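Co-fold these.
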Amino acid sequence: MNVSQLVEPDRVHRRVYTDQQIFDREVAQIFESVWVYCGHESQVPRPGDYHAVTIGRQPLFMVRGKDHQIRVLYNRCPHRGVQLCGNQKGNAGNALVCSYHAWSFHLDGRLRSIPLQDGYNGTPVNAENPDCSIKPAARVDAYRGFVFACLSRVGPSLLEFLGEAKIAFDDMCDRSPVGEVEVVPVCHRVIQHSNWKFFMENQLDALHPSVTHQSTGVAAGRVESKIKEQTGRAPLYYHYLSAFASKFEQWDAVQTINFPRGHGILKAYMGLRPQDPDTRAHEALLVEAYGADKAEEYLSRSIHHVLIYPYLSVQPPLQQLRCLRPLAPDRTLSEIWHFRLKGAPEAIYRRSLWYYNLVNSPATMVNADDLENWTKGQWGLASDGGDWVSFHRNHGGDTEEAGVIYSNKGTSEAVMRNQFRAWSQYMAADSASR
Amino acid sequence: MASKTVNKHGRHAKSGASPRPSTTRRLPAAGKSRSARRAGAQPAGSPRDRLAQEIVIEGAGVDARTGVQAIAPDHVPRAAESPAAVVPPIAQPIAQPIAGRAPASDALREIEQFLYRQSELLDGKRWQDYLDLFTDDGVYWMPVTPEQTEWDSSPSIFAEDKYMMEVRMRRITHPTAWSQLPMWGTSHVIGNVVIESESHGEYGVRSRFHMMELRRDDVRHFGGTYRHVLVRDGGQLKIKLQRVDMFNAQAPYEYVLQVWV
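Predicted complex below.
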C-alpha cells in the first residue's frame, strides 16, 4: 500500500480513518515508535507503586523502585508470559511476583528469585541472563514530572519530540508557585466510537464549537444571565460553557500555531484571568515566587489547548490532560486527568475542577455532541458516498516560518493539514529515520 | 451581555477587529528547539508576535446569533410535553396513621412512592417536573468513588446545583442538541428502599436502582445506590440531595451520560 497517495496537501482519502491495515501500521510506526505519555510521577509516589499503561498494543506499567526511580516495564513475566500487575494500579510491595509460578522480580525489573532454582541447573535461566528479567521500555524520560516512554531505541529525545509543544507542561507547572503539579487520582475513561484522528483534529478546530456546542453554550448563557440578574455575578464556570456559543467571527479571530511533528496550540483562553480575589491571591503568590516580570510572562500566556500529536491534548490553564489510546480504526479510549497546582489557593483548583466535571466527565455537556459527530463521521467515511475528506479552508492563507505554520484565521484547517504532514512522514519513514 | 473580544487589560475591542496585542510577550524559548526564534528581529505584528495575542472569548451565549442559530431558534423545545396522565400525581400521604400501624411505615411508603415518581419523571423526560422535585438549594451529585463526601470539591461525574441542572435541561431540549436526535430512552427500577435516618422532618434514604438505556440500537445498563436527603416543603417531600453512586462508575464509558440517572 502506498500511503503517500492517500494524503494530499489539502485533502485526505477516507481510508486513513477506516482501514485496518493502515491502523495496524499507525500502531507500529507511530504509537509504538514515538514518546508516549505514561502518567505523572505523583501517580506512583512510593516504592512499589505501579500504574498500568498501554502503548500502542503493548501492555506496560510504570513502577517506582526502591531507589525512587520510575521505570516503565513490559507487563509480562519472562517465564510463561503472564501479566505481572493484576490491577490497573496498586502497590507491589518489595517485589513483583508472578501469580503463575512465583518468579519474582525486583522493582527495577531484575529477576529476584525462582522457586526450586535447582530445576534450572544447566539451563540459561539465571539472574544474570537479561532475558530472565522483565523487559523495560527502550527509553524512559520525564519532563516536569510527566513521564514518557518510547518503545524505539532510535529517534529523537523526549525534548526533541516535544519541541515547542513542551510549553504544555511549562504553562501548567509555572502556574504553581513551586513550579510543580500533582495528579488528582481520578481518571475518567470514555470510549469514542471513532478513529483517533477525529479527536486530534477536533481539539484545535475553532469552527465547530459554536455549531456543535451551540445548545450547551446557549443554555449556559441563559442561566448565566439569570444568575447575574439575581446576584450581580455568575460563577466563572458558566462562562466555560457559554463561551462555546461565541460567534463564528470571534473564533476566526483566534489563532492556531502548528509545529513540526503535528503538534499545535490553539491560542485564546476562556477569560481565566478575571480580577476576582482568588485570582489576585494566586497572582500575588506567583509574583512572590518568580518576581513580577516572570509571573506576568507566565500568566499572560494565551493558550487554550496544546496538542501533542498523535495522542495528547493538554489544557494548561485548567490543568487538564486527555490522552488517547487507539483500540481499533473505529474505537479510541480517552483517559482524562486533572492536576493540582502545588502551593496555589484551593479556589484555583476548584475553578479547574468545574471544567473537569462539566466538560470532561462522562456526563459532559460538551463532549456529548463531539462524540456524536465523530461517530457519525466514522460511519460516513466507511461509506462509498465519497472518497475524500476536505481540509481546504484557508489553504494557502497561512504563514509558515521555520517549519511552524501560523494560521491567519482561527478556523483555518491548517491544523489538519499540519497533522497529516506529520502523519505522512511517520507512515513513510523506516524506523531508523524517525 | 454583548459578545466582544477583550484584551488582557479588560479593554473591549469590537468583535471581529484585528487581534493585535497591546503588549508583546513571547512564549519562553522551548528547550533546544529554537529554530523558530533564530530568524532574528521580527517586525511588530508578525506572526511570531501573535504568540502573545490576548484574545478572550467572552461568553456570548445569549446574544450570539450564529448562522446556525439563525436557522434554529432556541425557543422550540425538542421534547414535547408528555401528557400529564402518563404520570399521575402521587396520592397525598395518609394524614393519620392507620390504627395499629407504626407511623414509620407510612413514611416509608410515602418515600417509596416519591422515588417511583422520580423514576417515572426521568423515564418520561419530564425534566422540569423532575427539577421541581428539588429544593431551591438542592443538589444532584454522582461522585466517582463511594468515599467522596464533598459534592463541590471532588472530581465527579455529575455535580450540579439547581442552576446547573437548568443548564442541562435547557441543553437537551435545545433544537441543536445534536446528540439528542437519535432514538433514546431509559427505564428505571428502584428497590431496597431503607430510611436510614430521620431528624426534624429530614429523611436520609438509601435505595438501589437499575437503569436500562436504549440509544440508537445500543442498550446500556447502569446500576447503583441512591442516597436521598428528603425534606418537607409545604407538606410535599423535596430532594435536598440526590447522591448517585454508580456501581460501574469507574469502568470506561461507551459514549457518555447525557441526563441524570
